[in-house]
Amino acid sequence: MHEDKKEELVKILMKEGITDKKVLNAFLKVDRHLFVPDIIKLHAYSNVALPIGHEQTISQPYTVAFMTQALELNGRNKILEIGTGSGFQAAILVQMGMKVFSIERQFEIHQKTQKLFDSLGIRAALIYGDGTLGWKEAAPYDRIIVTAGGPEVPKRLLKQLSVGGKMVIPVGNRVSQTMQIITKISEKEFSTKEVPNFKFVPLIGKEGWKSE
């Protein structure tokens, strides 16, 4: 039943411009319905963001696929994810063979996703904390993916990115953001590509938005 829905979703992603076969294959392998609340499982394979509680969402599949493709993953990259949320993005990355470290600021969501990962045998390092400060102890990272929209790029995250590494982060106001795809050329030099028209929940933290 779910396999047909996954295949339909992958066809939609391909039409939307997702070409990385490793990304598309991960979407065929990971069960998105396991990452959404029971009451909305019916919509798990629709190409839409869905609420997961605590004013958080599981991102639209296209957005997850776009950000994953933008990371240009190769080999077994070490990745820092800011905003664990439902865990679906991290699960996609783990399925692709990546070494994932992920931070969540909502304790209840962190606990719930940790239990889900344990039950599914998904191996990723999850911690509760302020994602805008990164995870210094495990740095540096080959890739950093930020799944919430901030007013600017947190400086500590840039420091924790390896030279030659990439960061994908939505930056803008609380309503809409531009996706910034940043490559770290040297410790002080970065190149940035921007793609407009994305919408994320706010990146709350010391180097993000203040909680209201």
Please explain how this structure is put together.
This protein is of the alpha/beta class and about 210 residues long. It has a single domain (about 1-200), classed as Rossmann fold. Helix content is about 30%, strand content about 25%. The strands form two sheets. Strands 5-4-3-6-7-8-9 form a seven-stranded mixed β-sheet. It has a two-stranded antiparallel ribbon with strand order 1-2. The longest helix has 14 residues, at about 1-15. The termini are far apart. The mean pLDDT is about 95.
Tags for this entry?
single chain, 212 residues, alpha/beta, Rossmann fold, seven-stranded mixed sheet, two-stranded antiparallel ribbon, 6 helices, 9 strands, 27% strand, globular
Sum this structure up briefly:
This protein has 212 residues and is an alpha/beta fold. Helices cover 29% and strands 27% of the residues. The strands form two sheets. The chain has a seven-stranded mixed β-sheet.
* Gyration radius, rounded: 16 Å
Tell me the distance between the termini: 42 Å
CATH topology: Rossmann fold
Order of adjacent strands in the largest pleated sheet: 5-4-3-6-7-8-9
Q: Return the average pLDDT rounded to an integer.
A: 96
Q: Architecture, according to CATH? A: 3-Layer(aba) Sandwich
Number of helices: 6
